């Protein structure tokens, strides 16, 4: 890959964006950035705390600023938060500034992967996390599909295999 086009990973929580993103960045010798980690680092607080203090709206404003900034860099693999696509501005920046890869997963797989994770504010203190995931999927899946250049199911492969598959697909896009 002569030209280092940005690669943006989108998809629901538990799809493997961060894990696959790290593998992909390593294989392509590119920088890996996780927008949620970047938000936490700059805020000096975790996302759960930001949600508690500023609400989801405050968090989404921070996320918009960070994604606008990060998508202007060159040669990065960016893993976005599951809700990043809720913002029209984020969708525009992502689709205009790089290759968008939608890492698709089932609600069942998400539920398995996020069950014990205490760092998912939308799944904390809820009676039925699976129902929350189903409701999020109804809203977000069409938005992921709207801006995706490539859609890949992540349920049955290792992160390394997924990264290799993405490299091959991007090579094909770039000719």
Can you walk through the features of this model?
The chain has 175 residues and is of the alpha/beta class. Helix content is 56%, strand content 13%. The protein has a single domain, classed as 3-Layer(aba) Sandwich (Rossmann fold). It is built from seven helices and five strands; from the N terminus they run βαβααβαβααβα. Strands 2-3-1-4-5 form a five-stranded parallel β-sheet, sandwiched between helices. It starts with 6 loop residues before the first strand and ends with a helix. The relative contact order is 0.22.
Q: What is the N-to-C order of secondary-structure elements (H for helix, E for strand)?
A: EHEHHEHEHHEH
Q: Which oligomeric state applies?
A: single chain
How much strand?
5-15%
Main-sheet strand order equals 2-3-1-4-5
What gyration radius follows from the Cα positions, in whole Å?
A: 15 Å
Q: Can you tell me the CATH class?
A: Alpha Beta
State the separation between the terminal residues, measured CA to CA: 9 Å
- The CATH homologous superfamily is termed P-loop containing nucleotide triphosphate hydrolases
Number of helices: 7
Structural class: alpha/beta
CATH architecture: 3-Layer(aba) Sandwich
